[in-house]
Amino acid sequence: MQILLALVREGEARLSAPDRRFSSIGACVRKLYIRGNGYESRRFSSFQTPPIVKRICWVIQHSLPNLHILDWSRTFFLTQDDITCILKSPVKHLYLHGPTFEKSCLDIEKLPSAALETVSVDLCSNSSEEDCAFSGFVTHLVRSSANTLREFVFESAAPGISGAFADDIRFPKFRSVVLKSVLDHDCLLQTLLGESTCIRSLTAWSLDPIIRQFLASRGYIATLQAFHWISEFTSDCEPFFNFIEANPQLTTLELTDPLPSSLLDIHLLPTLKKEFHNLTSLRIIWGCDNIPQESLKLIASIQTLKNLALSAASPSQWHRMAWKIDHDSLLTALKPLCHLERLTLMADTYSSDCKHSLLSSEPSSYYFTQALPEEVSISDYINKEEMSVYHNMDVSNIDAVLALRDKLYGLAWERWHCNRMATIASRYAENHPDLRWIFVGQLPFVVVDGCPLLDAKSRDSVGSTIYVKWRLQA
Fold first, then answer.
1. Torsion angle defined by CA atoms of residues 360, 365, 370 and 376, in that order, rounded to the nearest 10 degrees
2. Which superkingdom (predicted)?
3. Per-residue confidence (pLDDT) for residue 461, from 0 to 100
4. Which domain holds residue 451?
5. CA-CA distance, 299 to 253, in Å (whole number)?
6. Which of 104, 209, 334, 379 is 20 to 30 A from 187 in CA distance terms?
């Protein structure tokens, strides 16, 4: 709250002296994420805006001159003034997931024009009137951003949205589409992905029957370079395989969820090997315990690959670290990929050498038990200063002593694990001379002169590396 009040004061100072240049907190903010804990939204009725939300909207317009990305994922009622503040801000990439408004509180014609590069809107809707307001709002965002729009994320199925991409307006920079649910908007698919499309990147969810039906017969898209398939464990994969086979010019192919080995080995990989001569980035997850050797041989035959992400897990285990990886086999199989620059090994896990009867030795528990091998001493990974803090603690405060002991043990395990993964990463660096980055053991490493160094810049926002999901980067 103190930071918010400071930003309000900065905004007021900017309004009173617009030509004055001064250092500020707000000028440093380029990304703003609004989440909240739901307490404020429960205190107010569905058509009330909490005061803190109105203050945030005001700050977005007046106090953040370099704001580039606004990601709002919280359910609050927004008024005309709140939305006006957002649209008058310098935001270029707008993600609104959760806010709501009703038609009577929103005059679309009086909203300011936007100049957005990304539009991703999924608003709460409980009635046909709210659907109409939602459609009008999205249409306004898209059409007023026609000259700058690069990416459109379609997540909701409110009627009338297809009018945003009518034939009477052009989108010269439009390059990326994300389709989650289109339901009865089959005409929207034709508008976005028709013969005149210029998109370079397409992301599609497989659960929507209209998307599956459209892609099954869409065929070749000359400008398409990247296809991201979010399979959601669907059993109907044929439409997507048909679409992939029709676009051998792809440079990036991502399959984000586990798929049966039979489908990958029989339908997809042989096609990639024979026809995809421009493929540089590939992400695949096998829906089984391990990646078959024949599959690895097929991947290794795609000599153009520079960016590779692999994993294996049954659908029921995918959200756990369950791939007991065999690095020896993987190193041997991937050796032919002489141009590999980035390697991501997702959800890999390892057997625990600890024999304690109360600790699980299952590979899926490796990151949770954090058990050091019996031959490893905690003192090998804790320095003298850290250990002295522990020894000098007041023993009468037993809870604090035990908490620090556990913290030091976890720190020792993290350092031991990091050293172990660095050793493994060095083997891949030796195996692939062009390797510049590797993600293994849930840790990112940058490779400098053949030596893997922990990539601190790639750590997540809370400074943790364990359990981080990494998206394939082209």
1. 60
2. Eukaryota
3. 42
4. 251-473
5. 13
6. 104
Q: For residue 356, is it within any domain?
A: yes
Read off the tokens for 227: 């296809």
Q: Which of 425, 388, 422 is nearest to 408 (CA)?
A: 388
Return the pLDDT at 255: 92
Calculate mean pLDDT across residues 259-285.
92
Residue 291's pLDDT band (boundaries 50, 70, 90)?
A: very high
Please report whether residue 349 resides in a domain.
yes
Alpha helix (H) residue ranges in 233-326: 238-245, 261-263, 269-275, 293-300
CA 194/CA 202 separation, integer angstroms: 13
CA 165 to chain centre: 26
Q: How far is residue 445's CA from residue 449's CA, in Å, rounded to a whole number?
A: 13
Total residue length of the chain: 474
Decide if pLDDT at 12 tops 90.
no
Amino acid at 284: I
E strands of 7-50, at which residues? 31-34
How far does CA 47 lie from the centroid of its chain? 32
- Looking at residue 393, its pLDDT comes to 77
Q: Is the pLDDT of residue 303 over 90?
A: yes
